[in-house]
Specification:
This protein has 6 helices and 2 strands, in the order αααββααα. The chain has a two-stranded antiparallel sheet with strand order 1-2. A hairpin with a 5-residue loop joins strand 1 (53-55) and strand 2. By secondary structure, the chain is mainly alpha-helical.
């Protein structure tokens, strides 16, 4: 069974936090995403069961190679889509929110075309 957009969002959040913090805990994810601790706990259990993350005995979360691959993909999509929308004149807050919605549903083929198009402006 494939990963749902909510799982992708959790992985992306863990990825972003891990770039800023040495150790990421469920509480950090909860605070960053604005979700309750029980909701985050349920989601993390699913990600552990599906081998996207590992949680050590101290409660520190690490992305598996599989989880990191998904997280990096979502992070790249989010950044490029946000940039595209802003270049089209959308304000940063709206562009960021819309990119978050689009990044989970856009096909690889369409995203690669957007990415290629955006590189022509660099």
């Amino acid at each position: 069974m494939g990963l749902h957009s909510s799982g992708e969002m959790y992985l992306e959040t863990i990825y972003i936090l891990s770039k800023k913090m040495r150790n990421v805990r469920a509480l950090d994810v909860s605070e960053k995403m604005g979700f309750s601790k029980p909701s985050v706990s349920r989601a993390l259990k699913k990600l552990i069961a599906d081998s996207f993350i590992v949680v050590d005995e101290n409660g520190y979360i690490t992305l598996s190679d599989k989880g990191k691959s998904v997280a990096e993909k979502m992070f790249e999509r989010h950044n490029i889509l946000t940039q595209l929308l802003m270049e089209l004149g959308v304000d940063e807050e709206t562009a960021t929110e819309d990119a978050c919605k689009i990044e989970h549903d856009i096909s690889d083929k369409s995203f690669e075309a957007i990415k290629k198009h955006m590189q022509t402006f660099k």
